[in-house]
Specification:
Two copies of one chain form a homodimer.
Chain A (H helix, E strand, L loop, with lengths): L4 H9 L9 E3 L6 E3 L6 E10 L10 H18 L3 E11 L4 H17 L3 E9 L3 E10 L15 E5 L4 H9 L9 H9 L5 H7 L5 E4 L4 H12 L2 E5 L7 H10 L3 H5 L6 E5 L4 H9 L5 E8 L3 E5 L5 E2 L13
Parallel strand pairs in A: 4-5, 9-12
Antiparallel strand pairs in A: 1-2, 3-6, 4-6, 7-10, 7-11, 8-10, 9-11, 12-13
Chain lengths: 323, 323
């Protein structure tokens, strides 16, 4: 059993995920040496998960390994970038072989699916936290930035919204989802990055973001960077059976629109590409749904089935704002 | 004053360090978009600093900002790579404007010196920790790996060894360095990455590593990866006046050879390049000194002035081993 940091790193991290030819040197030297394909630019993103803030102390380490990579792959997807490499900064209070093995299993399963190789890591002692950085490729002209939305463009989201947020409410004892609990818990614990959707649709979108902070906040980022606003048609928001029941019982649109952790894609599409976009999207495993439209007036406005404006609570998850 | 995570990131991190033309998109989107020069490979490395493990709670945040970047630039130097970009995962118990400003000041000063641009960041709430990843460029054939040392090659180190370790002893009340305290404290708080030295000498070395865990442990990594051993001549180890006095008083070679945090370079040089290496090295600001030689027999052997073998304590700093 490894007893030192060096052995721990060597043992677990030296062969995690796919084996890629563009990795000239992986884990184990001062740096990794990596080859970006000619004509592509490098897209990088990082996300940190802290125990007690982003996950509970007792959480399944295999799910955590999955989620730590998934939330980062979601950022690459939102940029229209193809995943390639990951690095991992892992801080642990002590060496726990079983915990680390399970964490690596969850990480590796998702990494293998998207041909991601772990190329660097740093393991330190301290309060449990996980910081993953992902690296992907995209042609400069095909990158999906936040600042490309134009007035009149249509707003689409993938999957269903609010399931992870409802799972958090259920965990806090604020709502009983009944038999839907397993489904929404899975959405919270094992978010699926929408990589295939992004790669299939990136040439048709004008802007994109992934929904980590809730649609209101994240679409708000697109609007802010693009100098515009948006309207959302609440009856069009895609809801799971669990959320559909919750909205019928409670009428609280804050959960699907202002909860974090969905990791669905929000894509903005010019009208002249609508038909082509919807044709390609219809062939994908996870559907995308049109939920609104970009407008000139700043801010996000929500409308109910009768066309009446509806005020929806808080503006999304904020790590410090909720402290 | 920023009150939310989004504003905090925008305010402090959007213009930190140099402004580089190869950064197509920096902080503020889902990913940064970066351009690696044609013909170069990307070198990446990351290091995490945790409060209470790598730094004390009351440490000067400006020095910490410097050190968090410096220890990473030291890894790029050890690879012979030219620094380019950095990302920062910052976990803080609360928003403290003055602390963040001072941290950014220390980070930016060093970043500007080496033309490093901050291209991505994630700020989270939790126990204070800093994880920096650096990205640099090197021609594939010029990278200084750990596995290139050959039998008979000479071992060089830059600067002086053990000052940071002695500062830790002084802080623990185990030793009084007298008037040398300021000098050794500066070595601990503000390590200088040996970037210029590495770039000037990389074409002459067969292997390299930076001294983060102590010469015995780090040269041990080179030997392990290169399938060899080494001998060290203790009288040749470069010592500051503080260390010279400490060795005369205590005779404890564990401090210069097995303390962490020096961040000097250890370069291994084939004999047929010795003359050229020493000629180039002599023109550099921080000198390098020959301290030993690569041998076939595994392990590191130390010899005193009389040529007698000397056993030197523990094998270097280990985050978990010392827990």
């Amino acid at each position: 059993m490894p007893s030192s940091e060096f052995q721990l790193i060597e043992h677990h991290f030296s062969r995690l995920g796919a084996t890629r030819e563009d990795v000239l040197l992986g884990v184990g030297d001062d740096c990794a040496l990596l080859q970006v394909p000619p004509g592509k630019v490098l897209a990088v993103s990082l996300d940190t998960l802290v125990e007690g803030v982003h996950f509970l102390p007792g959480v399944d380490p295999e799910a955590l390994g999955h989620k730590a990579l998934a939330v980062n792959l979601s950022d690459l997807a939102a940029m229209g970038a193809e995943p390639a490499w990951a690095t991992l900064a892992l801080t642990l209070p002590r060496i726990d072989e079983a915990w680390i093995e399970a964490f690596c299993r969850g990480f590796a399963q998702l990494a293998n699916r998207y041909r991601v190789q772990l190329v660097g890591g740093d393991t330190t002692r301290g309060p449990r936290a996980i910081s993953v950085q992902v690296h992907g490729f995209v042609e400069a002209g095909q990158a999906l930035r936040r600042d490309g939305a134009g007035i009149g463009d249509l707003v689409y989201v993938s999957g269903t919204l609010g399931d992870a947020g409802l799972a958090l409410r259920a965990a806090a004892g604020e709502y009983d989802p009944g038999p839907h609990l397993i489904d929404i818990q899975l959405r919270l614990d094992r978010p699926q990055p929408r990589v295939e959707q992004a790669l299939a649709l990136r040439h048709l979108a004008s802007a994109a973001i992934d929904l980590s902070d809730g649609l209101l906040a994240d679409l708000g980022h697109i609007c802010q960077r693009s100098g515009c606003g948006a309207r959302l048609e609440l009856p069009s928001i895609p809801l799971s059976p669990a959320l559909d029941q919750f909205i019928r019982e409670r009428g609280d649109w804050g959960v699907p629109l202002a909860s974090g952790d969905d990791y669905e894609l929000c894509l903005v599409v010019p009208r002249d590409r609508q038909a082509e976009f919807e044709r390609v999207a219809a062939g994908l495993e996870t559907p995308l749904r049109r939920v609104g439209e970009i407008e000139a007036e700043p801010g996000i406005r929500c409308f109910d089935a009768a066309g009446n404006p509806l005020r929806v609570g808080r503006g999304g998850y904020d790590h410090f704002g909720q402290a």
